[in-house]
Design brief:
heterodimer, A: alpha/beta, 11 strands, globular, B: mainly beta, about 40% strand
Chain lengths: ~400, ~120
């Protein structure tokens, strides 16, 4: 694929639902709220939507047909659907799928949506999703007493410390950087001051990761409306580059724990965009656990391999730094309804369209979003968004 | 459960860790691959592992109602990774380990420090 594979589409609108913990609300209602807001932001009527892309969303998985279920509930009869399921990065992939489908003429206006009530319903078991008794996860991995996916990232973090001298204070700096941005976002759920010492003093869940090294567990939904580039407002973001790569679901087949496939997807997505890491005004980096941005910034080329910890601890990613990261507060301080990928894109759209209010960056013309998924860091997608 | 997996757990209960081994190119793995990831051959058989290796990484998992568990990712001498538990003092990356079956024909795969072998 080349950038031309996506050039016929523009991101016309983006929004989140309310985020928090809502025992009285259904996933479908949160999805509807986010979709309604995104359509209003785009100025596109609901009836115009003829492409629907939804990954696994909360209770919308009874028949494992979430795109059809959402379409049914909204009275849509799309001629293009997608239910990509790769982990928390799936909605980022779906944004690219939608742009490609529109460029190819498979649909005209696409709704990419994700939502869940994971926070209030406690749908996720601490040992992970797999319940098939024949699965290796059930037979080999769950009996170890690990917590999935926290312990998998703990193993990765421990190895990164061993190979590169990364410290717990370096990891904590990721949470501190996110929190400083969250303080500027009224919708973020954790906005109070946070120090490295606070993170290190929080209980260890799976060493070396503390409670405050882990993302929130909340309810919430997000939606992005994508339509034809022709006639779109000049500032509406385009897909300048995209690349994905997938390798494993289990840590035992994870190979080199400390270098991810972001080292492949980042350079490929940037090459498609004919841009370099230094051309990015900000980044949106999947941060379910603090070790993830450390490794991803290295692999994406924003710092040397092994330097991710010191780079973030220097303040580079915090307000006022050279590489603003997760300007909404990220999954660590904003919200995290199980899959954060679409929230990364929503914030990128806000920054690129100059609608990020208190946290609006002065320069926001090109933003790189990177989503990792797969449960064991084995699925990666890089999306470069910007003005055409 | 597949016949091979039943044989695997039966062997583990008797003290042996079996590895799926490609009949064609000899690539070994713990988890099942219907086609060899290296050569594509569909033919495989279970062969005993030497049962030794080293800790590639580890994590101590806190549990409210039970003692902490040490979970280890071990690289066996056959260059196969295994996720298991570790019974020993302070784990460290690079620590030599051996399998430590406890007679149970079920997971987890258990490891102990290599030095304790008599």
């Amino acid at each position: 694929m080349t950038a031309g594979s996506y050039s016929g589409a523009a991101l016309l609108g983006a929004a989140e639902s309310d985020v928090g913990v809502f025992p009285e609300r259904m996933t479908l209602d949160l999805l509807g709220q986010a979709a309604g807001r995104a359509l209003a932001d785009a100025g596109v009527p609901l009836a115009a939507i003829d492409g629907v892309l939804v990954s696994r969303s909360g209770e919308l998985r009874a028949g494992d047909a979430p795109a059809t279920e959402l379409s049914e509930a909204l009275g849509l009869r799309p001629r293009f659907v997608d239910t990509t399921l790769t982990g928390g990065n799936a909605p980022i992939i779906q944004v690219a799928r939608a742009a490609a489908a529109i460029t190819a003429g498979m649909c005209s206006y696409a709704l990419v949506a994700f939502g869940s009530t994971q926070g209030s319903r406690r749908l996720r078991r601490s040992t992970g999703w797999a319940t098939d008794p024949d699965s290796e996860r059930v037979q080999f991995e769950q009996p170890t007493g690990y917590r999935s996916p926290i312990s998998v990232h703990a193993l990765i973090a421990q190895r990164h410390m061993h190979e590169f001298g990364t410290t717990s204070a370096h990891l904590a700096a990721v949470a501190v950087s996110d929190r400083k941005w969250a303080a500027l976002n009224p919708a973020a759920l954790r906005r109070g001051p946070l120090t490295v010492e606070d993170v290190l003093a929080s209980p260890i869940v799976s060493s070396p990761l503390h409670v405050l090294d882990c993302c929130l567990v909340t309810d919430g939904a997000a939606a992005v409306v994508i339509g034809p580039a022709a006639g779109a407002p000049p500032r509406s973001p385009r897909v300048l580059g995209f690349a994905e790569r997938h390798s494993h679901m289990s840590i035992v087949r994870g190979g080199d724990l400390t270098t991810s496939l972001a080292a492949d997807t980042g350079p490929r997505a940037l090459a498609m965009a004919k841009l370099a890491p230094r051309d990015m005004d900000a980044v949106q980096i999947y941060d379910a656990f603090t070790n993830m941005p450390v490794i991803l910034l290295e692999d994406l080329g924003f710092c040397a391999k092994g330097d991710g910890g010191p780079f973030i601890a220097s303040g580079a990613t915090a307000p006022g730094g050279s590489l603003p990261m997760n300007t909404q507060g990220g999954g660590l301080s904003h919200c995290h309804p199980g899959m954060y990928g679409l929230f990364l894109v929503v914030e990128a759209v806000r920054q690129l369209t100059r609608t990020a209010r208190e946290r609006q960056l002065e320069r926001a013309d090109r933003i790189l979003c990177h989503g990792a998924g797969g449960g064991a860091f084995g699925s990666h997608a890089t999306l470069v968004l910007g003005a055409p | 459960m597949s016949a091979d997996r039943e044989r695997f757990w039966h062997a583990w209960g008797e003290g042996t860790l079996l590895l799926e081994t490609c009949v064609s190119c000899r690539l070994q793995r713990l988890y099942h691959s219907p086609l060899c990831p290296r050569c594509g051959s569909p033919e495989q058989r279970l062969e005993p592992s030497a049962g030794t290796g080293e800790i590639h990484s580890f994590t101590v998992v806190g549990h409210r109602a039970a003692p902490d568990r040490v979970v280890v990712l071990v690289t066996l001498v056959e260059d196969v990774r295994v996720l298991g538990t570790y019974d020993g003092a302070e784990p460290r990356i690079g620590q030599g380990v051996r399998i430590a079956p406890d007679g149970q024909a079920a997971g987890p795969i258990r490891f102990a420090p290599l030095e304790e072998r008599r």
